[in-house]
Amino acid sequence: MPRIRIDHTKCTGCRHCEAACSLNHVANTVNPRRSRIRVMRDGNRYYPVIAGPFVDAACTSKQYIVIGDQTYDMCALCRASCPQKPYFIEAETGIPLKCDFCGIPPSPSCVRWCNTGALELVED
Amino acid sequence: MNGWIGRCLRVNLTEGKHQIEKLDTDLLEMYLGGRGLGVKVFTDEVDPNIDPLSPENKLIFCSGPLVGTGAITGASCNVITKSSLSGGLACAKMRGHFGAELKYAGFDMVIIEGQSEAPVILSIIDDRVKLVPGLEYWGRSTAETEELFKKNLDDSWMARETYLVSIGTAGEKLLPLANLVNDRFLSVGGAGIGAVMGSKNLKAIAVKGQHSLQVADGSRFVQVINTLINKLNSAPLTSQSMSQWGTAFLVGLCYQKGILPRNNFRSTSQPLKNIGIEALNSAFALRGRGCFACPIACIKKADVKYSAFEGKGMVPTYLAIGSLGFNCGISDLSAIGVMSMLCGEMGLDPVATGGNFATLMELVEKKAVTPEELKIDISFGNADSMIEAIRLISTKKGYAKRLGQGGMAISESFNMPEIFMGVKGLSLAPFDPRAIQGMGLHFATCNYGPHHLYGYTFIDELLNVHENLDPLETQGKASLVKRYQDTSAVVDSLGLCNWPLMGLKFNNYVPMVNSCLGTNYKADDLLSIGERIWNMERIYNMKAGFNMDHDTLPERFFKEPVPDGPAEGQISHVKEMLPEYYQLRGWSEQGEPVLGLEE
Ligand code: SF4
Ligand code: SF4
Ligand code: SF4
């Protein structure tokens, strides 16, 4: 199954992926808040996160995650389109968003515009 | 509307009021947006003879129509005002994410008028426009201001998506060298703008929003961008040099051609091993950062190896290495890194600051003033004292008061104005005009002072991307300069970055513009808009007191041949090229645009 592999060390925080995703889902419209991929900025690092489904049971406690020498709020790196945060909620309609692996095969829109290799399509 | 939002925010700081205006569609067609539209509105509204630091001066932030649409490198927002350093127009280019976020916040343009009594921050967040009391931010560095503002938002999600542009202590103290800094560490470039913002008591502007942007033909637009990304990837400069080292890769090249100046433009040679890209690699771990929608990502962050740079530092660019380092006789990269970081924190323009100190150093060398009188050992090559002096100047206390007035004022106060290496009051970007003639002509004639980002002749003269030109040749340079100057006006007005032109032709932009805006421009149409903008700027500057006598370079470049290096023996031939340049522009022999050229 093809997957999108995210390598945050390569991400430059350019958000071109956000523009690509939103252009591909709402005709002729660009708005990162309507995109199914968001680049989380935490401190000096950028983490692309691709939206996934939210289930109530999955998330009953707050968590922190330590990467290198920094501690992150797990919610920032979580892909759930969860009602607790303003991410992955359609800015205009309020509908929760999920990645639908869009675009012209073989590359999804976001992967195609990501020029650094931070997003890559892999087969396994 | 496609591309444009079509709204402008006018904020009067004296009254603490704001209003939202509609943009005039005819103006958009004639001036595109960004620099063109901003300058048009500014020149219509502001008398050229006012004092730049008075409440009558305005400060305009204007994003181009392609900004935020996903058009490659569509990220820049131009800041237009009357400069406190030159007295003419200033138009600086803000990169990063602020410009795009301003559009998402619902505005193409923000006009700041008047003067606030107490420090304030303008906050445009989710359609709420507010003037937030700014006293607790006053006196803080640009990075601290951003951090504190976000903390005070009390909502980490909102903070993550808010972008700021602010002034540092230099701007607060109205230092003529001051500029703005956005997204924590990006210097906006354009000395004197920071002082104007400081004089208005405006510490920062914060933006965030959820507005959508429309593009005319989404599927064509996506296709065009796919092609442009491929094109950029197949050009060596944009796919490798710029992505790996940022503009710092120019250091080695300029050195080889004798263009990199040293010791206030009096020498060019210097052992390369300390400053080339290898040295850069070993001094910093280079991690790329991109402006909005940029596939090149030339901004290099420096926080990996030095914890001191955490969250603030950026690997010095060519401008910083040349101006703060080499031209002051300093080649220690980590010292240059520290200076460049300090400039970012305090909101100082690296070129103007470097020029300021290079002038001071030559004065000391010529014994016009002694280090004892200055109370600090400023001299070529002394990095420690220069770092100390940069820290001091924005305090403006005691003797430090004399150190930061700008190169021209300093050289005049010691009766040696010929020592100041600048044009129209602004310091030269670090390119020796004797070794690159076209750039010299551009420096002499540029509306915004001697800065290479308003006329990219080095792309052909030095890098030989589109044409293989000899930098020492003068033939054909006048038309090259005109073409690149007009190009820069278009690129800035659309809100794009200049660096992709190291891999793309200007023509390649045209389908992107048309599919985004739903227009039918040809490359020549756009260039004639660029020409119109250039003339409009020129006319305003002439009303503000500039004339053809200012279209020149410091005497040194005509009288003293380059003493050493690959360009040894060369002088500048600007005076010979100038008549042809005026003629190509359709100006009179006195360099005055004939009536109607700005319309
Ligand atoms: S694969 Fe498509 S839907 Fe999913 S994040 Fe990328 S662009 Fe958006
Ligand atoms: S396009 Fe790639 S590099 Fe740019 S922000 Fe998205 S993931 Fe990061
Ligand atoms: S090339 Fe550099 S300056 Fe230009 S948009 Fe890209 S990252 Fe920004």
Keywords:
heterodimer, A: 124 residues, alpha+beta, two-stranded antiparallel sheet, 15% helix, globular, B: 599 residues, Aldehyde Ferredoxin Oxidoreductase,  A, domain 1, Aldehyde Ferredoxin Oxidoreductase Protein, subunit A, domain 2, Aldehyde Ferredoxin Oxidoreductase Protein, subunit A, domain 3, 3 domains, six-stranded mixed sheet, 17 strands, 39% helix, binds iron/sulfur cluster
Q: How many distinct beta strands of chain A?
A: 7
Q: Class of the largest domain in chain B, according to the CATH hierarchy?
A: Alpha Beta
The CATH architecture of the largest domain in chain B: 4-Layer Sandwich
Strand order of the largest sheet of chain A: 1-7
- Number of helices in the DSSP assignment of chain B: 24
| Class inferred from helices and paired strands of chain A | alpha+beta
H/E topology pattern of chain A: EHEEEEEHHE
CATH topology name of the largest domain in chain B: Aldehyde Ferredoxin Oxidoreductase,  A, domain 1
Count, helices of chain A = 3
The shape of chain B, in one word, is globular
Mean pLDDT of chain B: 90
Number of strands of chain B: 17
CATH homologous superfamily designation of the largest domain in chain B: Aldehyde ferredoxin oxidoreductase, N-terminal domain
Oligomeric state of the chains present here: heterodimer
